[in-house]
UniProtKB/TrEMBL annotation:
Keywords linked to the UniProt accession: Metal-binding, Nucleus
CDD domains: fungal_TF_MHR (cd12148), GAL4 (cd00067)
Protein name: Fungal specific transcription factor
Organism: Recurvomyces mirabilis
Domain (Zn(2)-C6 fungal-type) ranges: 51-80
Biased composition range(s): Polar residues: 112-129
Length: 730
């Protein structure tokens, strides 16, 4: 019997150095417009039916339409002629000249509308040869940076090959790969980006969806008219610094060279966000604002089509559309998470064989998607769709925001390739406002990771069930779980860099720190909201527990006092917002976060044990409503919180009278101190003087005593560490 020999282990194939593709190699690729070839193509033509000059040069199938022009010439907006003589294949020099001429015509077709070709007569007879004048060939432009990328190519898209699919990575590695790390077989065209990581790549034309990109772009241009470039400038000035999910230099490089093959939903979304500053721009303000409703409709409909061809541009477009402070964001957020997983945004791309600028962009875009998912989960009370166990993206560093694109480095070979021109030189100092925006973005990422822990710890289905099982000891369980999260939140606030402080702004310059600090208060309130809810015996104790009783007055007093301090600090923060904050870019969740403050105040009022406390919260909520109305004059989206507050006021008006005597603090005999890090007199001020009158803790600008220092509007939250030795629950 023959001896079975073990097969040698599969050694990982070394990744080839990334090489810049040849100019205009995409001439041979199918374009999105070629879906008409599949839908309207006639029967096979005879050899006597010669292609037009343009299709001959492109070596593409020529499909005539009733108008007398072929599909491709109409798409490229160029003349459809039949005057050139076919060139012999052996004349390489002439072929190069024709390619140069084709390049020139393609470039011109993006900005000009060709004359009609109705006078062109197609003849089956031999067409006479007309001498072509000698025209100097236009210089061949280097490929756009996006054409070197993995997930931003203009006419191709890719999908990650997962570990459990039928395409096994160890078998794929046995194939023959070219200099672009691609292999072509009956399995399709596959691209390796790292050992064991593969993507399948596809032509956009292979996806049978309506191809209205050219029409959508034309309609977008018609809506914004001559103000398109001004709106793009506004976008990169006001949005991009605090939300850098677009590669600025790559975008401007394409715009500078007349490329009109932008992603329609992305372009429309950028215009929509920039239109928020139309009335504040001295150049645009005198003119009527473009139709935003029509622009948004085009963006949404074209995004639906773009999602069928997974690219980073579709994720970028969706995220920008979601920043428009609309209420119905959950469904689109879930779709974007799935789309991001399709292109591998949840993976660590640090060592992938893709351009350096794309690796940096993927990391920023991935974390923007992460924040969108977590804050949407908070807004809508839904489970997050990003599991920590399946998230491998490293936190961004300062270098990940470098958009110079002066070099494209392959991590495997350290070779350098060309990048687009017009980028900032390495030694040129960057705008301080841009650096500030990047810090805000990074700090928001860290805050979002804490929010993710809050959602899992207090609001997941498992957590809610455990609190219900705890019965009368639910408050103790909540407090025990709250302590480590509060420590993280307190440390985050303490470590904020100077440029992220609320008082770090220049008069007349927009400051994006507002949404960052508002997010901090939303996270704090989400913790205290669960604590206050656990104090209600009706919700804390199961109906089957006969011994359920009211919570310990000592615990009730401490928890409600800490919650009151958080509410007052949050309201004071809103009261101190300046026009420089309100007119800046605000993260999409900001409207909901303002509403959370209103809801938390209404919850404390509704659960108040005494009449004096009810009157205190009622007064503070009225003041808060006035403040929100003032803010809404500059930021109309704040009106959402105003409407919610008015709704809660109507609900609370129907509550019965509370007893005159409110909650009184009686120290528990076994208590060693209500707070672990702050004493009662320092950290828990109930907002009342000894005589029952309202104190001035909300007006002196010192918050709760644990703040930032001079000029601080509020303080950090307390870490509640209550001695619960008298509890029997373990």
């Amino acid at each position: 019997m023959a001896t079975l020999m073990a097969a040698p282990p599969l050694a990982p194939r070394p990744i080839a150095a990334w090489s810049v593709p040849m100019p205009f190699m995409d001439n041979k690729e199918k374009r999105p417009a070629l879906k008409q070839l599949q839908q309207t193509a006639p029967a096979a033509r005879s050899r006597k039916e010669r292609p037009c000059d343009g299709c001959r040069r492109r070596k593409s199938k020529c499909v005539l339409q009733d108008s007398g022009r072929c599909v491709l010439c109409e798409f490229h907006k160029q003349d459809c002629t039949f005057v050139e003589k076919a060139q012999p294949r052996k004349r390489k020099l002439d072929e190069g000249a024709l390619n140069d001429e084709s390049t020139s015509r393609r470039s011109e077709s993006t900005t000009q509308v060709a004359n009609t070709a109705s006078n062109v007569q197609r003849s089956q007879a031999q067409t006479p040869v007309i001498p072509t004048p000698s025209i100097p060939a236009a210089p061949v432009r280097k490929p756009f940076a996006v054409d070197e990328s993995l997930s931003l190519q203009r006419h191709r898209h890719c999908k990650l090959i997962g570990q459990t699919t039928a395409l096994d990575a160890s078998l794929i590695s046995l194939g023959t790969f070219d200099e672009k790390n691609e292999t072509q077989s009956r399995l399709g065209r596959l691209r390796q980006v790292h050992t064991g990581e593969y993507f399948s790549t596809h032509d956009d034309a292979d996806v049978a969806v309506p191809d209205d990109e050219a029409r959508a772009l034309a309609e977008i241009d018609a809506i914004v008219g001559q103000y398109g470039s001004t709106l793009i400038d506004i976008y990169f000035r006001n949005v991009h610094p605090s939300y850098p999910i677009i590669q600025k230099q790559a975008f401007l490089d394409r715009q500078r060279h007349g490329d009109r093959q932008f992603n329609p939903p992305l372009l429309a979304a950028m215009y929509l966000l920039a239109l928020s500053w139309w009335d504040q721009d001295p150049i645009l303000a005198p003119f009527p604002k473009p139709d935003m409703n029509r622009l948004e409709y085009i963006a949404i409909t074209s995004l639906t089509i773009a999602m069928q061809r997974p690219k980073m541009s579709a994720v970028q477009a969706g995220l920008l559309l979601l920043q428009r402070a609309k209420a119905s964001t959950w469904t689109l957020t879930v779709q974007l998470v799935a789309l991001g997983q399709d292109i591998g945004l949840h993976l660590d791309c640090s060592d992938w064989s893709i351009p350096l600028w794309e690796r940096r962009l993927r990391k920023r875009l991935a974390w923007a998607l992460y924040m969108q998912d977590k804050w949407s989960a908070l807004m809508h009370g839904r489970p997050s769709h990003i599991n920590p166990a399946d998230w491998a993206v490293l936190p961004p560093t300062r270098s990940d925001f470098d958009e110079t694109m002066s070099a494209t480095i392959n991590p495997a070979t350290t070779t350098v390739g060309p990048g687009p021109t017009g980028a900032r030189s390495a030694g040129e100092p960057e705008d301080p406002e841009i650096l500030k925006g990047r810090q805000i973005f990074m700090q928001m990422i860290t805050l979002t990771t804490i929010l993710s822990e809050i959602l899992t710890t207090f609001y997941s289905t498992t957590a809610i069930a455990s609190f219900a099982r705890a019965g009368p000891y639910a408050t103790q369980l909540v407090l025990n779980r709250a302590k480590p999260v509060q420590i993280r939140l307190k440390q985050w606030f303490t470590d904020l860099p100077a440029e992220c402080k609320m008082d770090s702004f220049e008069t007349g310059k927009l400051s994006g720190t507002g949404y960052l600090h508002l997010g901090y208060f939303a996270a704090e309130i989400s913790i205290h909201r669960r604590i206050v809810q656990s104090l209600d015996p009706a919700s804390a104790a199961p109906t089957t527990t006969p011994t359920a009783s009211k919570p310990d007055p000592y615990i009730l007093y401490i928890c409600r006092s800490a919650a009151k301090t958080r509410l007052i600090s949050a309201m004071d923060f809103v009261n101190r917002l300046r026009p420089e904050h309100l007119s800046a870019f605000w993260f999409f969740a900001s409207a909901a976060n303002f509403s959370l403050i209103a809801t938390f105040g209404a919850l404390l009022q509704a659960s108040s044990p005494g009449r004096e406390e009810v009157e205190f919260y009622s007064s503070r909520l009225r003041e808060f409503g006035w403040t929100l109305n003032v803010c809404a004059r500059r930021a109309k989206w704040v009106g959402e919180a105003v409407g919610l507050l008015e709704g809660w006021a109507e609900v609370l008006a129907g509550l019965g009278e509370k007893p005159v005597a409110g909650l009184q603090y009686v120290p528990h005999p076994s208590a060693k101190g209500p707070l672990g890090l702050l004493g009662l007199e320092e950290g828990v001020d109930d907002g009342m003087e000894e005589d029952g009158s309202e104190g001035d803790d909300g007006d002196d600008g010192e918050g709760d005593g644990g703040g930032e220092g001079e000029g601080t509007d509020y303080g950090v939250g307390e870490v509640m560490e209550i001695d619960s030795s008298h509890w029997e629950y373990a």
